[in-house]
Amino acid sequence: MRKRNGSFLVVCIAVLAAIVFFEPSYGWKFRAFLDRSAASPSDGQNLAAQNQVLMAELAKLQSVAAQMPDAPSGYIRAMVYSRYPMNFKNEILADAGENVGVFVGKAVTFQGVLVGSVEKIFKDSSLIQTVFDGTFKVPVRVGNAGYDALFTGGSYPKAVSIRKNAPVHVGDIVYAAAPGLPYGLPIAVVSATSTSPDDLFEEAELSFAYDINGIQTVLIAK
User: Fold this and answer.
1) Of 11, 34, 63, which residue constitutes the final position of a domain?
2) Which residue has the higher pLDDT, 14 or 176?
3) Are residues 43 and 94 in the same domain?
4) For the chain, how big is the Rg over CA atoms in Å?
């Protein structure tokens, strides 16, 4: 029985050698098959890891595609880290910091609208105080006539200290007029008007063109 098995093995080797000799292409295919068969389990793990990296990159780009206009000169593009499940409106954290030249106090915009300013910087990230922070205050102007006002942040931001009887109307634009910020950056639109509690000034409730919790990419002024 052993002799018969040995003879069969010799015949198989001889046939294989003949195929490789007379048809070299089959030899290369056989070698490739052996190489694949000998691949270590770690090769498959590496491939799986590479696929996950590519899938993550694709998901990131697809999720922010609509929020990524060409960055104008003078601005740094930054991705916004997720705040789920807390979703605080008063601050956001972006992935740009000292490493790309971000400075404290610089304006932060989303699709051309002011959303806040840089409050703190780290090596590769920055903390942004948004217009929904209760301590955010900045001089602004309202409407085509440019009435002076003070923007006050919070859960429901307002434009306050407007000259009494100033003809401010629903739909008027509120834009930045403070030193250190690009002049004229839009912030919000007047949604309602009223008189201040002390009856000395006009006030304006505001509406915004974005959902702060939906922002995934911003531009930071250099």
Assistant:
1) 63
2) 176
3) no
4) 32
